[in-house]
Amino acid sequence: MRPVFTLAATAMVAVAFASGAFAAEFTKGTVKKVDAKAKKVTLIHEELKSLEMPAMTMVFRVKDAAMLEKLKEGASIEFVAERVEGKLTVTEIQ
Question: Which of 22, 45, 48, 75 could form a disulfide with 53 if both were Cys (CB 3.0 to 4.6 A apart)?
Fold first, then answer.
């Protein structure tokens, strides 16, 4: 009986991950500056709850330089920021 319970618990955790129960949290922001050469973007953003940061203007690295092609100064965006190798990094943009 115990192996069946363990298997069921493992399956439930897998379903939770697959269903997006731990989905990334998007934050609203405005593009202030795009620095393609340095692969960075300056954003005026709302509170970053996942990083416990208040609303402010700051510079972020981007996970993929191709993201910068989608960004224009003054544009309103929604983004996900995470710590990647200790650096604040934009990992997703909508």
Answer: 48
pTM above 0.90, yes or no: no
b/e burial code for range 64-93 (CB count within 10 A of at least 16 → b): eeebbeebeeeeebebbbbeeeeeebbbeb
CA distance linking residue 41 with residue 88, whole number of Å: 11
Q: Decide: 34 and 69 in contact? Cβ < 8 Å.
A: no
For residues 67 and 88, is the Cβ–Cβ distance under 8 A?
no
CA distance 79 to 72: 14
Contact 45, 62 (CB under 8 A): no
Class of domain 24-93: mainly beta
**Are the CB atoms for 24 and 48 separated by under 8 Å?**
no
